Amino acid sequence: MKVDSFPLLMVLLFYLSAFITILIYKNEIAKKIAMCSSAVGVVLSFFVMMETVRNGSFIYNAGHFEAPWGIELYVGRIEGIISFALMCIYLLISWSSLYIIDAEVDESRVKLYYFLCNILIGSVMGAVFTNDIFNAFVFIEVGTLASCGIIVVKNQKENYLATLKYLILSSLGSGLFLMGASFIYSITGNLNLSYINAELSKVSGDYPTVILIATGLFTVGLGIKSAMFPLHTWLPDGHSSAPTSSSALLSAIVLKAFVLLYIKILYRGIGVDSMEIELVFEILLVLGSAGMIVGSLMAIAQKELKRMIAYSTVAQMGYIFFGIGLGTKSGLAFAIYHIIAHAFAKSILFITAGNMVKKAKSKYIEDLHGIGREMPLTMGVFTVASLSMVGIPILPGFVSKWNLALETIELGRYVLLAVVLVSGLLNALYYFPFVIGGYFRDKKSGELDYSRRLSLKERIPLYIMTAGMVYAGAASNEIIELFKAALG
Where in the cell is it found (predicted)? Predict the structure, then answer.
């Protein structure tokens, strides 16, 4: 079997696993199926990544017809590396979910939960690999419904409200995306990104306004889905109220797939040579900068741990849009690298936070004082991920922020440099107090309860995530160079 068919196999793998999961009788078997499918996904994505690293990009036609009539998957080094990273993170999140999902989701809904997770991951992989904006729209829609499902599956009032808000705003984003696709189709007659780019190189001078409108619609549509400030309003409620593993999935994987799709449309479809794209870059810079600052300020104001981490996601997504908005190959490479950096760190933060909240039976930060002495190893993992988010060398969060700062100096845009520095300081102002309180502050009442510590089998996926995050930081030069080479 050829490696070029593996991307399609990955999509089919998760869809088929989902339907098998919902048909079986026992929850334990559903969990094993989820673990097996994610493990196979890691293996397939590894071969895809190695193929792209060694031999460059490849195209796979799904069916007998070639593009523009048939369905085409495009897999470059960026898609290969990102898909492998996301699949590894999904495997580890699934592993962690085995020990916490029964406490958060009713027994009768556990099978449904894993059904939705597999549907979601299959859609995410489809969005990462597709080279067609209509198929991307289909994957977005299916993924959005599954995302709503893994929030509302918890079956509490706050989950229903959060899901309703997410569904309404996400539907608006889908509609805008479809309108953008319609505008592009009206002037190019194509939905395949490669063909769109070729046609626009011929007609862009005739339709500058249409291109600008379409780009704006894609920006707002996918901006809603990837929590770009100020379109992020659904995220804090959705991510903080969802089951722990859902929060990790949504923050670490789903947002990243949507922003990667946006990058593909911008660079591979519309093309950055268009004069109109400069305005879009400036808007992305402003919104990215605002997200970095306001997201952090909102995180500082939170009293609930998961809600603080959710607002931190808004700030971190700001870095990604900031990097895109710089409009340079290096800035884009650093933004894509930050996708990996944030995915590892945020999955660790949500999983550890969920376990601490579960053991302490409180979601409030002040009730978690002293939790570091009760759960030292879990808190240690949380601390390492926090340090990455703040930007401490050699961790990946530092690498992306440091390089983004250097890029602003290279461009002579010192106001943007100040934004990066202030944002990093604000990150410290909400992560450090929690870590310090966890280790050194006394509990409001009661003795320390050392029985809250996680078992070794619960901690192993967290250790592997942390090792993966540290490796991503140590190998940052090689990864970023691969991204730069892929961008041409």
Answer: Cell membrane; Membrane
